[in-house]
Amino acid sequence: MNDFVAPTIDWAAVSPVLVVLGAGVLGVLLEAFVPARARRTTQITLTLAALVASLVAVGLLWERVSEGAVSVVGGSYLLTPFGLGIQAVIAISALLGVLVIADRTTTGQDSFAPAAAAVPGTTYEDEARRAGLQQTEIYPLLLFSTGGMLLFPATDDLIVMFVALEVLSLPLYVLCATARRRRLLSQEAAFKYFVLGAFASALFVFGVALVYGFAGTVRLQGVVQVLADPGTSPLGTMRGLVVVGLLLVLSGLLFKIGAAPFHTWTPDVYQGAPTPITGFMAACTKTAAVGALVRVLFTLAHGLDADTRHDVQVALWVVAILTMVIGSVVGAVQTDVKRLLAYSSIAHAGFVLVGVVGLDEVGSSAVVFYLLAYGLATIGAFAVVTLVRERTVSSDDRAGALGDTTDDGVVLGEATALAQWAGLGRRAPWLTAAFSLFLLSMAGIPLTAGFIAKFGVFSAAVEAGAWPLALLGVLGSAVSVFFYVRIIVFMVLTPPSDDEPGAVVEAAEDAGSVTGPAGGAPALTGTATRAVVARTVVTVVGSRGPAAVAIALCAVGVLLLGILPAGALDLAGQAAQFRP
Amino acid sequence: MSTGFPWLTVLIVWPLVAAAATALTGLGRGRPAAGPVTGGGRFGAGVARTVALVGALVEVVLVVGAFTAFDTGAAGTHQLAETHAWIPALGASYALGVDGVGLLLVALSVGLVPLVILAAWREQGGDHVRLRRYLATVLVLEAFMVAVFAARDVFLFYVLFEAMLIPAYFLIGSFGQGAQRRYAAVKFLLFSLAGGLVMLVAVIALYLQVPAADRGPQTFLTENLTGIALDPTAEKLMFCAFFLAFAIKAPVFGVHSWLPDVTQNATPGTSTLLICVLDKVGTFGMLTLCLPLFPGASRWAAPFVVVLAVVSILYGAILAIGQRDLLRLIGYTSVSHFGFIVLGIFTFTSLGVSGSGLMMLNHGISTGALFLIAGFAIARHPRSSQLIGDFGGLRAVAPVLGGTFLVAGLSAASLPGLSTFVSEIMVFIGSFARWPAAVLVAVPAVVLAAVYVLLTYQRMFTGALTTELAAARDLDVREKTVAGVLVAALVVLGVAPGPVLDYVREPGAVSVELVGETDPPAQAPTGSTDEPATEGSAL
């Protein structure tokens, strides 16, 4: 105990995480030393380079890890094939997400407030805007968050997992508050996310404490050993401790996944956060959290006796069913595109959990593929949302208002009310086609990635004997098809409202009647929307490149994974060689 | 298995190429910056139509080629087979192949498309951009239709079965002419998807019925899933799931309510493709998947299915009589006819099953003719009214229209001498051997069919000419071509059904064998059959 021996660290194995975190630190320094004009370009280049490097590192490690898990510092960092697969999905999603974040569109503005700390509506905020300030700190924040996500599913140590949880969450709380428009909504979202996130973290830590009390260690492997041989720990016979602890840890993770009953933050946060951040968050956080959940669950499941295992599975069943039902049913009455996508992401959390309940390898392979398919469609969909904007109408602007020109009238924030999307198919056929493709993939229509993904998780469930769950999942997905198709109906089948403001109002009312079951509360927002719509028309702004590339990549990915999924399925299969 | 020229792949890929070409005719015409709202010159539209038509005609030539490569002597086996690895991890392969019935249905799809394109020549209210997109979507749908009839892999079949809903959905919702087309499109999609998703669970369950040791990269091939030992309860459940999906598609009574809405709101061309071809996937699926995969459950369910079929037959016919909307009426007649097809399949006699196979083809031609010719009549109405009551005396100004409509209508009522008679009599005789009571109850539907056809004809074409229609002209050359081809097909196949029967006879026998039944011994030849029926009963 007297001699300090420096541990030998396998730096290569840690490289996917280290590259990203290191680039984050570097980014903070750049923020201080690089002149303002070059800052944005430098930051974006650094961020993309770091993520690509991380992806390359994952690729290089693939062969080695598929021969056996690599454990660093006694399991503080444990790279299993599954963890590596999740890291690959996170890196890909983050890369696409950053492309969307970096796009300033033809309006020349990105989605972020010039001075996030400014109180909305104050002169200070006005001055900051006029001075053309921009937030380039978001890129290091993104890198830190991504680093946390990469670490999250790749550890055997619950404390490290908790640190990763915080490293990924804290930057996200900040990022949520930085929207350029609807600042109050954005800050409210961040606050909500922060408070509820802190609560979830507390549950997680408490769970870890109970597990530690039971096993005397926070290493999952150690817990499994104690479960097998209770005598090795003073409280090793108090099995209740570990079960309650496990459930609390799971609660913390399910919060991050956005599964019911821990889902309530999702719609508000997804709506309030800057849309590119929402896309990033929806795809990457969920991937990382599902990865960690599978890691904890599958490892401990090996140690649990049949009864306890069954109890945990019942809990998962309930969560999965609740999540699917709430996501699909409540999603069906939403009138805001971002909220709707938020409920869709809740429903998807339920579908992923359907694949997890079997607690076997088939399930984990299906989960990896599902997360990739989901990530591509989600980032693509939110990227499209960033480009559909409101524009003020000047009185002499009626003739050319249908065009894509942004010279006349001021382009405002995103047009997120579903009614405003009517007839988008005529204005922007390609964008509409891409968005429809993403929605069809989320709905699980064959020849898109979403179908193969759903097929995978449902097969895993049926194989595990959970066919009622699969049947419910299938019915839930039929309901969710209804609301995805509703958006397509609006975009493609509903005739575009003329640009006369009066006509737009009519369209909004028409949409209100279509979305009738929304009931009382949405009727209020409906009125508000109508007031806005009367002064603005919907326009589609051009991308400056990165977002268009991201959308195109997502669309190609969704189609390729749908039509020729063999290669990706093989990789997912390799990733599922789960060695706890 | 892959030998010779990949006819089926070519038949699938070519319409996609043609669709792309049709869509691309819109490029490079100097689209105005304001976006293609109503833009596009006459020239551009003309090119799009021509490209689409030529593409569809080339496809017809290709299908003729496929026929020459098909050995009629072995029509009961899957020919023109191609098998390639697709998703080995899931056991799914890209496996194609057709037996006689499949080939006839492929031919039906391919044959109807150029007629639909011709019929749509002036549709979409003169909006050429819409017309171009419509035609491109039709061609995409054609590729899916060919593929689904040619799929020899359950997974591939399922994927196509669901994926083809998307072009069909847009054909109804985007390009329909009815006021409620969006409602109809969503209803169609939700009905079909709900059935399809339930089927998905059964597809997964079926895969898992294969012992884990035997699962390989080609597990989903239909022949590999045929004859595996199934748990009886699971088999029944899986049969029900498959049957539900196919019954919604077909549509059978109880889950048919989407169909009249669709026919009322879609263009006649879309309805033709949907009802005459796409819905055949339902009955085709019953024949090629339900029966061979779940023989025990098929025998178990047959009495229920037969009752459902008979109810469909009568219900469709009775409701058709009461319809005021012409296209809705045709929709209901199809419910009745699909009842006949389902009845024939579940007779488990080679005569009944092959009669159903033939009826799938004949119903396609007959109903296609009805839809398209009805579309011509509606186009002549100044308000494009679909209500039968808005017409009257049309024969006086449009005799050819009236005549072809009558022939098409009578074919729906199975007049001897027209092709539908042959198949219907085969189904009746085949069923009589197994379910005499069902036949006795269903036979009056023939009379009901005569009622709805003749009443409609009488109201629309005879009597005093309504003033609105005074300026109507008879069919032009384009329309005469469409109507002529279909009527000629009805007559030729009615008078000389022999060659076509060669394609359905063996598949019918094979299906009966797969389901584990044998033909009832005493098949009394009906005395008063004319020439075509003798052909049929000689089987």
Automatic annotation (TrEMBL), chain A:
Pfam families with a match to the protein in the record: Proton_antipo_M
UniProt key word Translocase: yes
Membrane topology term: Multi-pass membrane protein
Organism field: Isoptericola luteus
Chain segments annotated as transmembrane: 12-32, 44-62, 82-102, 138-154, 160-179, 191-215, 235-255, 276-294, 314-333, 340-359, 365-388, 430-453, 465-485, 547-569
InterPro entries: NADH-Q_OxRdtase_suN/2, ND/Mrp_TM
Superkingdom in the source lineage: Bacteria
Catalytic reactions on record: a quinone + NADH + 5 H(+)(in) = a quinol + NAD(+) + 4 H(+)(out)
Enzyme Commission number: 7.1.1.-
Protein family per UniProt: Belongs to the complex I subunit 2 family.
Keywords: Cell membrane, Membrane, NAD, Oxidoreductase, Quinone, Translocase, Transmembrane, Transmembrane helix, Transport
Subunit structure, interactors included: NDH-1 is composed of 14 different subunits. Subunits NuoA, H, J, K, L, M, N constitute the membrane sector of the complex.
UniProt domain NADH:quinone oxidoreductase/Mrp antiporter transmembrane: residue ranges: 156-479
Name of the molecule in the record: NADH-quinone oxidoreductase subunit N
Subcellular localization(s) per the UniProt record: Cell membrane; Endomembrane system; Membrane
GO MF annotation terms: oxidoreductase activity
The protein's enzyme class: translocase
Function field: NDH-1 shuttles electrons from NADH, via FMN and iron-sulfur (Fe-S) centers, to quinones in the respiratory chain. The immediate electron acceptor for the enzyme in this species is believed to be a menaquinone. Couples the redox reaction to proton translocation (for every two electrons transferred, four hydrogen ions are translocated across the cytoplasmic membrane), and thus conserves the redox energy in a proton gradient.
TrEMBL record, chain B:
Enzyme class (EC, first level): oxidoreductase
Listed InterPro entries: NADH_Q_OxRdtase_chainM/4, NADH_UbQ_OxRdtase, ND/Mrp_TM
GO MF, one annotated term: oxidoreductase activity
Principal subcellular localisation of the protein: membrane
Transmembrane annotation, as ranges: 6-27, 47-70, 100-121, 133-151, 157-176, 188-208, 236-259, 271-294, 300-322, 329-348, 360-379, 391-415, 435-455, 482-501
UniProt-listed NCBIfam families: NDH_I_M, PRK05846.1-4
Protein name: NADH-quinone oxidoreductase subunit M
Species annotation: Isoptericola luteus
